[in-house]
Structures are given as structure tokens and as C-alpha cells.
Specification:
Length: 268
């Protein structure tokens, strides 16, 4: 196969990855709309795609205001969770003593049902943004901490021995070897942490929010209006996809910084 043919095949495969899910989504909306047209159901239960898109168009300024509120809080919660999670993950790998002291307690608090703890954050921090962001951090940091600790502990032993033979300090070994080798695991934890931070903010908006997409969902549900509810869910899906893509782009940037792709056991 010639180089030109290979390029055309590569472009075709790349286009198919984008077109195929869009075609499937379009077909799903057509079936959904047709089904509700010929088999009518209460609009309080399920709205047709036409009504959902009409709500998105007509209420775009208001929905964008709520989307921006949710976005800001998710980003705040995720960034704080990333800092806390990476710090705790590094802390529990410093020595056996720190692992024995901190790890069981972290697991213990994570075994408590998250929704049951949400009222405590309201009691401590009030009904505003701080309580929702703190709850998002509580939801997200554990996955990041465990992923970081796993990556730091799985650094190749021969690499650590080489650093010791070169009289590298513990800090140099950590920053130049162990932390870079842990990057694949850290980003795996960050991807999960992003989803958990998003859940934490939405749950917080269910409980205490006066704005945000979670508030829109609760308000529309209580009012029996399914179109705004589905519109808010659609925006949440788009927001989650955008935020997840940002984490992927950050991962690609780090890969380029270190000059190698990530693999499960470190750098290729």
C-alpha cells in the first residue's frame, strides 16, 4: 500500500470515529421523536427531542448562566481534589509509618456513604459554594490519592537502585524519577476524580443550590417539566465531555513535556 493510500485510509478511519457516534445519536433522536409521536406519553415523564432543543434555544441565556455556575464549582473542586489527592498519595508512600497511620483512616472515611455525609458539609460551611466545593473534594480526592500512591510505589526497582548508586537525594529521586514514572497512574486517577468532582457538585446543588444545573434538574422535576430537565442533563453530558477532554489534553501535554508516551508501567 502506497503512502498516499495509507494517508487516505487513516483519514477515513479518523472521520469514521467522529461520524459513527453522531449518526447513531441522530438515529436515536429520530426514533425517540417518532416513538413519542405515535405512542403518546405524558410530557411530565419524557419530552421529545424537539421540545428539548426548543428549550435549549429559547432558554439559552438562563441555562448558560446555570452551566457557568456549575462549571466554576466543578473546576474549583477538581483542582483542590487534585492537589490534596496527589499530596496524600505522596505522603502515604514516604515511609511504612505514614502509610500505616494515614491509609486505614482514609479508607475508613471513604467507606461512609457519601450522600450521608453531605449534610455535615452544609452544617459546617453553610449552603453556599464552599460546602459544595468541599464535598466535591471529599468525593474526588480518594481516587487521585490511591492512583498516585500506586504509581509512586510501582516505580521500577532497578531505576531506584541506579539513583542510589549515583548518590541522588530522596528529593531528586522523587522529582526526577518516581513522580514522572507515576504520571500514567496519576492521570488515571485524575480522570476518575473529574467525574467524582462533577457528581459531588451536582449532589450539592440538589441539596443546597440556588443556581446551577443540579438546581435546574431539581426545580424542573418538582414542577413536572421534563423538557428543561432533559435539557439540563444534555448540558451536563456536554460539560462532562469537555472537562474530561481537558484532562486528556493535559495528559498529552505532559507526555510531550517528558518526550515519551505513557504506558502502564511507566514511560515507553
Amino acid at each position: 500500500m502506497s503512502g498516499t493510500a495509507r494517508k487516505r485510509l487513516s483519514r477515513l478511519l479518523g472521520a469514521r470515529r467522529v461520524v459513527a457516534p453522531l449518526v447513531f445519536l441522530l438515529a436515536l433522536f429520530i426514533v425517540w421523536e417518532t416513538w413519542l409521536h405515535y405512542l403518546p406519553m405524558s410530557r411530565a415523564v419524557i419530552a421529545p427531542p424537539s421540545a428539548i432543543f426548543a428549550t435549549l434555544v429559547n432558554g439559552f441565556p438562563i441555562l448558560m448562566k446555570h452551566t457557568l455556575s456549575t462549571l466554576i464549582e466543578i473546576v474549583q473542586g477538581f483542582l483542590l481534589a487534585a492537589v490534596v489527592g496527589i499530596a496524600i498519595g505522596a505522603l502515604i508512600t514516604i515511609s511504612t509509618w505514614t502509610r500505616q497511620a494515614f491509609y486505614p483512616n482514609i479508607v475508613f472515611f471513604q467507606l461512609i456513604p457519601k450522600v450521608a455525609v453531605a449534610p455535615l458539609f452544609v452544617l459546617w460551611l453553610g449552603v453556599g459554594t464552599p460546602s459544595r466545593v468541599a464535598f466535591a473534594v471529599f468525593m474526588a480526592f480518594f481516587a487521585i490519592a490511591i492512583a498516585t500512591a500506586t504509581g509512586l510505589e510501582n516505580t521500577k526497582l532497578e531505576t531506584i537502585r541506579l539513583c542510589r548508586s549515583l548518590t541522588a537525594s530522596h528529593w531528586q529521586t522523587f522529582t526526577k524519577v518516581r513522580f514522572p514514572f507515576a504520571m500514567p497512574h496519576i492521570f488515571a486517577g485524575l480522570k476518575v476524580g473529574m467525574a467524582m468532582a462533577m457528581i459531588g457538585i451536582i449532589v450539592g446543588e440538589f441539596v443546597t443550590g440556588q443556581e446551577g444545573l443540579g438546581y435546574v434538574i431539581m426545580f424542573a422535576s418538582s414542577a413536572g417539566e421534563s423538557a428543561p430537565l432533559y435539557a439540563a442533563l444534555l448540558l451536563l453530558a456536554a460539560l462532562g465531555l469537555a472537562l474530561y477532554s481537558c484532562v486528556l489534553l493535559a495528559e498529552l501535554a505532559v507526555q510531550r513535556w517528558y518526550g515519551a508516551p505513557f504506558v502502564s508501567e511507566g514511560f515507553a
